[in-house]
Amino acid sequence: MRYLGSKDSLADQIVDLLRNKGLLQNELIFCDAFCGMGSIADAVKNIYKKIIINDTLKCASVFTHAKLMANGCTFKKLGFDPFDFLNTDKGFKEGFFYQNYSPGASDRMYFSKENAGRIDFFREKIEEWYKTEKITDNEFSYLLACLLESVSDVSNTAGVYGAFLKHWDKRALKPIVFSKIDASPGIAEDVEVLNSKIEDIISAVNCDILYLDPPYTQNQYGTQYHLLETLVLNDNPTISKVTGSRPTTPMRSQWSRNYYAHVLFDKIIAETKAKYIIFSYNNDGFMSKDFIETTMKRYGIEDSYVCEVIDYKKYNNFKCQGANGHFEYLFFIEKKPAERVIIESPLNYTGNKSKMVGFIKSQLPQREIDTFVDAFGGGFNVGINIDAKKIIYNDINPFVEGLIRSFYSDPCSYLQYIEKQIKKYNLSPDNKEGFLRLRDKYNSIPVAKRDPRMLYTLILYGFQQQIRFNTNWGFNNPAGSRWFNENLLSKFIAFTRSLQTKNVEFMNSNFEFLDIQFTPQTFIYADPPYRSTLGVYNDGKRGFEGWTLVHEQKLCKFLDIANEHKAKFMLSYVIKVGEFTNTEIIEWTNKNKYHMIDVATTQGRYNNRHEVLIKNY
């Protein structure tokens, strides 16, 4: 069977990888999420007690199902050999294929009219035997797969069915023979057949090992194999006047679109219940090796990560992104427990707590939190990683709050906007002029009408990717040497996906005036600026408030009020940097009998600072 991206030649390497990882254990459940023509599922069918196969195309899931069960098809109820019957009987039917895919009643040359009539006869007989219960479900799938194989031998195409050849290929004029498919020895013990977009069902698929082999170029399998889909479904659809294709919109895969593939990959890796993930991808694909590695390591145990590079003869056409040096990647990762996964903000926010999130989470109350208030949200590294019924994000800086709020949108359209700006202004680490033109454009727009997506694009190419404004609220960060790299792309996609799975309320307020109710079910996390350090966001010179002893005293009073209402709070703070010791905070903590916990690993450039968590529980 000729099929785009077939993994016949990779099956041995995949089995070897599973063997090296000690995963050839019968009790494990293996899921082939993009099963195609079943090369990998067939290679492991004698290993695992249960195999789950899935594909958006019915013809693919039927073909794979047939390979797994082929050796168990005896046709006992039918009482005779269907292959002998179909090849001996001269039955002929001027059915759907004869009418639409041959010169019998159309201008299309997918098949000779003789072969098309025989195909219609074969399909009718298989359906008749199934409806009269003369063949089992497995035997029905097997005969349909054999029909697909037989059709492939006489099709007048270049290998796929997006179009037919204008002249007859010699093999297309040979009489069709109803032949058996190839399948490895053995019979699968237990098979579950799915026919869905894997991204729609991944969280409900119970498996131990997940194998992923998605499309990686613009080729739409529904378009290329529409004819085989129609043959399996036998539904006589309305078809295109030119190609004869059935409607392909329901079969279209977002994996064949740039950025959409990235978003779906992150979703699958994040949401699968599988403990082990194997991923096949080609170097011509939309996703880069760096993006895939960063994403897999975010959700997996880094030491378990494997990337093998395999020379691979690939299908090639004008839509492929490269012409030479084609090879296949084979990735592996063991997933870490969900509670250990850390989502990082796509903002390079000064003082962010991304490396402290694990420690902060370990210090949270054991009970479920109803409302989590990230009172000084900043890049939202903490709040995004908290499980709570409701999360309140607040930041006094309207630009920062607007950026985080903007991430609560469709990531693909957001990324397409960024890409458009990059191309329009020719942004790159060595093009200062393009950066300044975009910065001037942004600053020329009234503040209320500025697009946070434009601001984020500027930040990506600015000096150290800082968020810096002057006293007139003009973005004034100079050009930098950074860019929108694959690591940032991965962070952005993971962050936006995670954000959209949570119930988040956004606020842009001074912490004193937050519109929240203090209850025993409320938790306040405060990560204010530190009086002992300054950043571009808290020095009081750039259109925003600074952070002084007065601000610190107001925060202490705010947290005391929360405590009086039985709300829980945690304050991230630095009590010592160099010669400076914050005695006021130490005295406030001791006076109220709050608990001060040392933070072993701190962030920032200061090695001589004492960072703590202060909590009232």
Q: What's a concise summary of this model?
A:
This protein has 617 residues and is α/β, with parallel strands linked by helices.
Question: What's the structural blueprint in terms of helices and strands?
Answer:
Layout: H1 11-20, E1 29-32, H2 39-43, E2 50-54, H3 58-69, H4 82-88, H5 96-100, H6 113-131, H7 137-154, E3 191-194, H8 198-201, E4 209-212, H9 221-224, H10 226-233, H11 260-271, E5 276-282, H12 289-299, E6 306-311, E7 327-334, H13 357-362, E8 369-374, E9 388-394, H14 398-406, H15 411-424, H16 432-443, H17 452-461, H18 486-500, E10 504-507, E11 522-526, H19 549-564, E12 568-577, E13 580-581, H20 583-591, E14 595-598, E15 609-615
Parallel strand pairs: 1-2, 1-4, 2-3, 4-5, 8-9, 8-11, 9-10, 11-12
Antiparallel strand pairs: 5-7, 6-7, 12-13, 12-15, 14-15
